[in-house]
Amino acid sequence: MMYLRFINKTAQDLDVDIVSVGNLSVGGSGKTPLVTALALKYENVAIVLRGYGRNSSGLYVISDGKNILEDVSISGDEAMVYVRKVPKAIVIVSEDRKKAIKKAKEMGAKIVFLDDAYSKHDIKKLDIIIDVKSKNSSCLPSGPFRERLWYKKEVVVLKDNFDFKRETQLKDKCDKMSLVTAIARPKRLDKFLPEVVSKNYFEDHHSFTKDELEDILKKDGSDSLLVTYKDFVKVESFGLPLSLLDLEVKVNEDIFKIIEDYRAKEN
Length: 267
Fold this sequence. Notes:
By secondary structure, the chain is α/β, with parallel strands linked by helices. It is built from 8 helices and 12 strands.
């Protein structure tokens, strides 16, 4: 069924440079920090994503590259991370990626990064996929993969710790911290973690309440909650003591060469 959908689609040229970054498996792979690192290199850049976990539907311009226009409940957590990390980028959430790309182009974008859009085979773009290893190579529902790397589909596959490397900074460290996070595959944080009092995992994109976080602080007797940036943008307004595990990636310059070669070929 998925293959038929792929071969029956014709990629439409939307007359703007488009780069999609994602992974084929369910769950996190580090695409948000990778998109961030790539987008920071460009002027007149836009980031388009669906906006999972947001309390809204339809198209919203979250940032026009100068001003934040919506709050995190409208944007969703990942879009707000992009707004804060790439302040000069136009950031748009929309279920309809084509509509959002056209809006970004109207607003002056010369290059658009799509967050997790490999399956949008009807859009002409450069597809970058983060290689995620799994013992089970099956597609849903019997395995973790949403789709295959289809034959004749041109894709750039990036390997973690080879094509890009992760770096972390621990900000506002306290003696006693409780980890609280709502990201996919939270155990991937383990190798970056300092000593914590407890690890509190919530469903991906979970909308925290102040009470549940205060309960964790009280139960653990902690000085602060240790959160990722994706969590931080949702809880900073609560006024609770926070420590931030800030993850960034450094990208091999060869990847930017691939993007520039693609842009040159298209133009």
